[in-house]
Amino acid sequence: MQHIDSTQNKIVKEIKSLSNKKDREKKKLFLLEGERLISEIPSAEDIAYIAVSESYGGNIDKYENVYVLNDKLFSSVCETVSPQGIMAVCRIKDSKPLIADNDKAPLYIVLENVADPGNMGTIIRTADAAGADAVFLSSGCVDIYNPKVIRSTMGSIFHLPIYRNVDTLELMCGLNEKGIMTVVSHLKGFLTPYSVDMTQGCAIFIGNEANGISDELTDEAECLVKIPMPGNAESINAGVAGGILIYEAVRQRMFHNM
Amino acid sequence: MQHIDSTQNKIVKEIKSLSNKKDREKKKLFLLEGERLISEIPSAEDIAYIAVSESYGGNIDKYENVYVLNDKLFSSVCETVSPQGIMAVCRIKDSKPLIADNDKAPLYIVLENVADPGNMGTIIRTADAAGADAVFLSSGCVDIYNPKVIRSTMGSIFHLPIYRNVDTLELMCGLNEKGIMTVVSHLKGFLTPYSVDMTQGCAIFIGNEANGISDELTDEAECLVKIPMPGNAESINAGVAGGILIYEAVRQRMFHNM
Fold first, then answer.
1. Model pTM?
2. Is the ipTM of this complex over 0.90?
């Protein structure tokens, strides 16, 4: 346990740098704030070190590397407005995307260039609630280690495999080859999600908030679905649209397995 | 058309004051930024006046009361980071909540103490897309005229009746009396949304992000539903949960009417 009082300390500088994507990638580290999120970290090996404020009252005995920052210094390195006095600096671990065989009926969520941190975090949380098998993110998506994404996942980033910087076209071709249904949410879709069989292996593709799914994915997709809009709005928030599609798969699978 | 260059001008002061809920209520005015949102305003009568920046290039001939602010002054009164150079100051009009009879099979969305502006805006947008008949907001909800709510509705506030400061318990009793199904989203619900008939008159109640629906509404509700979560997350974002429930009603009604 080491006390830190200087803004020039290298740990303080490192924590501050992690609000920046480039530095996160260089150091392969990201920041997690608050007890709830830290409690979700699956293994002690994932934690590079812990930082707490001087007045933090929680138990830190279980952690190996702990730095104690004076309260002012701690607040200055926090992203959240009302910090709880504890943060973890965690290791980024990437792995090669894996696709299961269709007979396992996997449910995959694929995000292409989703730009809003809240939308991405929310979709990952929904995918986790739905018991999806993995989430795939194109390289054009907002960084999953962006603090706003992390916060809105509510810990779900630790619950299911999430693959970053995925070549989504290559992925779609691989899924099609395996016979896993590739379902793209598209405003020009002519099927509703309710008329597509999602009880078999199924991958739901959600695109950028403003531009939707790219043409190359649209061309390769097995089916384009459009959420029906009998009312007046022309579109739905991407996080909500993702939730509606993911849960249509959940609903179909519930009744299929009955 | 009047040119304004002074930060002390009363119009400038009024616009600035409208970022504040108390002032919005006192003046019965709210702010709308950008061409897209302004184009959704149903009637010229809803507009108290328009403010544009000096360098705004769009057409303002159709508006009656227009103030031209120098660019710096205009930016200083904007909520959005990259303002488009036009805003409308609109009139707040409240009306008494109306409930249709059950034979009209209305679809209502009721929000109790929803606190996050993005969640509320998103649910209103989803309700609009789904063709819901009205949205009811309890007095504990975030103000619908909060600029962040307005932005995330994407214009939907003008597409369907939205009642503010509603006594949600009184509303629920009224709905129950009329035989309109009151469906509450509740983590302790023992029904899934898929097993509740929402093809008849139906009101979906969504509660506060942290605390859920109040006990008094829970006690009066006809049925408590829980979105199934076969995965690991313990809860879903309120905006997404709202979307899943609203669209289950849409799905059932599509097949019911076929």
1. 0.94
2. yes
